[in-house]
Structures are given as C-alpha cells and as structure tokens.
Design brief:
The protein has three helices and no strands. It is mainly α. The relative contact order is 0.22.
C-alpha cells in the first residue's frame, strides 16, 4: 500500500524542496543500492508470518522500494516529483 505524503504543520516548512530532492536523489537509488542496504538489516528483524526467510523479506522490500522510487509522482505531493 502506498500513501501520499502529506506534510504536517510540523514538517511543512521543511518540505519545500521535495522536487529538488527527488530529482537529485531518486536517480541514485537503484536495485543494487537497495539490495546492499537491506543486506545490513539483521535477519531477526525480518522474520514473521509474511515471509519464509529473511532473504525473502529482503527481496520483497527491494521490490517494493524499487517500485516506490520509480513512481515518486504517485506518492509525493502534486508537482513535487521530478
């Protein structure tokens, strides 16, 4: 499930450069980076009823996050995605 980003009154003043951040950072996030980062997450944090193994959970997170970064226009506020 993805949810649209909705700045609260607390973070709204700091969310003024989302398009700039998206344009600069989203291209740097690829499956290789996500795989490297997820490899750092301890396996015991990834156990549970949803996945057979921690590696299966890691693969699911990589897939999910790769789809999110590919479609920032779907969840960043209108006009914020690069």
């Amino acid at each position: 499930m993805h949810r649209a980003y909705r700045p609260t009154t607390t973070c709204a003043p700091y969310a003024t450069r989302l398009a700039d951040a998206d344009a600069e950072l989203a291209p740097r996030i690829d499956r290789e980076l996500l795989t490297e980062v997820l490899a750092l997450v301890p396996g015991e944090w990834l156990t549970g009823p949803d996945f057979d193994t921690p590696d299966a959970a890691r693969a699911a997170y990589v897939d999910h996050l790769a789809r999110r970064v590919a479609r920032t226009d779907a969840w960043l506020p209108a006009g914020s995605a690069a």
